[in-house]
Amino acid sequence: MRHLYEFRDRGLTISLATELDRIVDRPIRFMEVCGTHTMAIFRHGLRSMLPEDLHLISGPGCPVCVTPTGHIDAFIRVACMPGVTVATFGDLVRVPGTDGSLARTGSQGARIEVVYSPIDALNLAEQRPKDLVVFPAIGFEATIPGVAATILEARRRKIQNFAVFSAHKLMPPALEALMSQSGLEIQGLLCPGHVSTIIGANAYKSLAMRYHLPCVIAGFEPADIIHALILLTRQVRYGRAEVENAYPRAVGWEGNARAQGLMQEVFEPVDAEWRGMGIIPGSGLAIQPEFSEFDITKRLDIEIPQVQGPKGCRCGEILIGQCMPSDCHLFATVCTPLDPIGPCMVSTEGTCAAYYRYGRSFSS
Amino acid sequence: MGEYIIVHAGFAIYALDKDEAEGNLRLLMETAEGIR
């Protein structure tokens, strides 16, 4: 397919990797923020092509992974209520809460349906008028406009048995919080592609300036990723700290204004808890009061408990680059994709799942 | 019809810019050719 396969070209990727190898002249650590990048780097075998001195660590860009245990517990509590059907993305189903998962709750009789889009959840509500269909809304800026559009569509179609449990997260405040923590020694950010499609490349400018941090937005094909690493390395070598857009075919500097408008129409920023990072001001989204009939936390008066994550699980540290999956004693022993303890082993974008599947030998 | 779009969670979030794609590819090739 044109505009896709060219960016997977083996010869091009190898040539770019050779150039990267040539310019890396010191130990460098970059963070790939996005879970899809983590998976793409492994899937395409890029780690084996990287210079020895170039280290990549994964960041907090997996929505399932950063959703704290208290939210999972609250989703399960809603699923246990009579007359409720929870319609959710598949990777959320297996994330362990304090006492089981949505999958286990489903096996005990709760109605859990896997959907691929929030609009599928809305259609399900239309098909089942006697059920209250609840959509646990996790995800970053790439997902949020679709959920906003679905809420507007629910109002337009006058579907009253549909509600959203918003656990959305915003990426820029989280990156700001991450960089303000001491001890995170990284020289640049490989910024997410799809999130940047919505928020635009300008969203990283303050981060680059304030922390003198090179930021490069990357696509998801092998040549895209190596090219972005070259741009980051050049910035490090020449002492620059700028935002560069290495994914211009899908990301503009201003982002998707229409999608941003949808988000602002339906949601408002609130403080939000992130696994591993605690509460970050303005990093979450709640449904605007004007749409409260679609807000399950208002409709059923749901509170989100503050609880600890699974004992011994180091997902929180992995998400902020403080340790690697192989540093966790549970990794690949009692925590496996078949029987996960932490969310990073569950999600298709999870760092532990990627390391388990492709690279168990990598460690800090 | 005939456009390349990026679909995320069931929604098209961006229509791919063909001119930018061509330019993007040219830049990658130039970077790679620098060492050939």
Structure description:
The complex is a heterodimer of chains A (364) and B (36). With 364 residues, chain A is an alpha/beta fold. Chain A is built from 16 helices and eleven strands. Chain A has helices at 10-23, 35-43, 63-66, 69-79, 90-93, 102-107, 118-127, 144-156, 171-180, 193-199, 205-210, 222-237, 257-266, 296-299, 315-319, 351-358; strands at residues 28-34, 54-61, 84-88, 111-114, 132-137, 162-166, 188-191, 215-217, 243-245, 267-274, 278-287. Chain B is an alpha+beta fold and 36 residues long. In chain B, 44% of the residues lie in helices and 25% in strands. Chain B has one helix and two strands. Chain B has a two-stranded antiparallel sheet with strand order 1-2. In chain B, a hairpin with a 2-residue loop joins β1 and β2 (11-15). The longest helix of chain B is centred in the C-terminal third of the chain and has 16 residues, at 18-33. The model of chain B has no long low-confidence stretch (mean pLDDT 80). Chains A and B meet through α1, α7, α8, α10 and α12 of A and β2 and α1 of B.
